[in-house]
Amino acid sequence: MNEIDAELNGFAKLGISxxxxxxxxxxxxxxxxxxxxxxxxxxxxGRDILGIAxxxxxxxxxxxxxxxxxxxxxxxxxxxxxxxxxILAPTRELAVQIEETIKVLAKGAHISTALVxxxxxxxxxxxxxxxxxxxxxxxxxxxxxxVREKDVxxxxxxxxxxxxxxxxxxxxxxxxxxxxxxATHPAxxxxxxxxxMPAEIEQLTQSLLRDPxxxxxxxxxxxxxxxxQSVVLAxxxxxxxxxxxxxxxxxxxxxxxxxxxxxxxxxxxxxxERDGFEAAVIHGNKSQNARQKALNGFRDGSVRILVATDxxxxxxxxxxxxxxxxxxxxxxxxxxxxxxxRTGRNGRDGIAITxxxxxxxxxxxxxxxxxxxxxxxxxxxxxxxxxxxxxxPQGERNFAPANDGAREGKEQRRDGRPRNDGFGKKRFGAxxxxxxxxxxxxxxxxxxxxxxxERPFKGKxxxxxxxxGKPKGDRPFGDKPHGERKPEGSKPFRNKRRFxxxxxxxxx
Length: 508
Ligand SMILES: Nc1ncnc2c1ncn2[C@@H]1O[C@H](COP(=O)(O)OP(=O)(O)OP(=O)(O)O)[C@@H](O)[C@H]1O
Ligand SMILES: [Mg+2]
Prior knowledge:
Strand content: 5-15%
Radius of gyration: 24 Å
CATH architecture of the largest domain: 3-Layer(aba) Sandwich
Domain Helicase ATP-binding: 40-215
Oligomer: single chain
Shape: globular
Bound molecules: adenosine-5'-triphosphate, magnesium ion
Distance between the termini: 46 Å
Region (Disordered): 381-508
Helix content: 25-40%
GO molecular function: helicase activity
Strand order of the largest sheet: 3-4-2-5-6-1-7
Domain DEAD-box RNA helicase Q: 9-37
Low-confidence stretches: 398-444, 449-508
Organism: Mesorhizobium retamae
């Protein structure tokens, strides 16, 4: 790039220069986004920062570029097992993506990066960080393990970033994050970024930030202006058909469908497949390979429909997602902002449709309060009857005994519940593994919120919203996610939490 080009590049005016400016320009970044304009100079001047800007508005480069610029100036001498900068992210996929972005922005600048995250072998991670790296991008659980085992030394880390900061500071992560922050260099510079920052979480930032600059491009919770949002009223039993009818429209070219639970995501995926659609699914009970494969397929366009839990709600940048469909509303109102923010990124158009059962009305109101706008209802199916359930295809639990009366037109009991065919009796705790508290030790990758330690859905006391507090054996018909068996209109979040008094920082 010649001198004139460099002057034309707005990033030069922000203090980015040399190879970094070249690579940034080559990546297509010529005009800084508002968050970049405001956050980059402050960080270059050494200030801590709390950055709030809408989804898809360029927060990654806003924290990556100033650190890159300072690190490049330091030269390549690094101490073994150390990292100069540490970026923490709530999910493995987001960590992978941040590393990719850093590599693109730093192309040709001899910057070393390493990833530390769960679900994959430690060996290669430990090996990679052995000589010391410039950037370590990590999820907190695995990083804690490697720090404890002295495979990673954080005392030389002078830059710390929490991407999706409000998520990193909520109950599921805060303890690990505090410990990690304490292990870094005392004179570190810290940056916190997110599109949402509830007031009670912002208080927690005080313990991490020193005299921070607060950059707020739009008030927290603001959704990207490009996203056209709407609501479709449909009872839970109608949602499958409503979704399939919707997806028949080819204009929905790249769709992410969010479900509240892992079990729910699996069920939506199966139903879509039965209705003739091809869909990939991503949630916390899948292997890391399967998770990354599903996301990669969606990214490269070979997968048109991705069904996901909130594990894919934050930070994931797949340009060209045309639609986000919320099959149900998330437990945490902020998640709505992040979910729909997978579309309408970087100035592109996007459409977000939320299917709302009457029992979800209070959640909808909470969402509307956070985004400070009322969502228009574009369709109302409530007056229509529930669709007749098709029999399951051959081979899929179609093994009722031949003499079972239930198959002779007596599908339902008088009270409307399905007849018990004898196979469903006393199925204790058939709930999917990871939906239970303390189900397994985990790496701290917490995309999903249906675990202990989660922050309460706004306005409810925290003890009142745990579906998972009961011991497994207490639920004789545990084949459905807790809460889903309740009659319509009944109040959720009533069960007192019993086991989850402590944040289950490592469950996911
Ligand atoms: N200055 C720029 N010029 C052109 N494209 C940019 C610029 N800054 C960022 N982008 C692109 O915009 C997209 C969104 O950026 P990014 O993922 O950093 O958003 P974000 O604010 O972190 O969103 P989220 O809140 O969802 O994490 C990316 O594809 C990125 O490459
Ligand atoms: Mg981001």
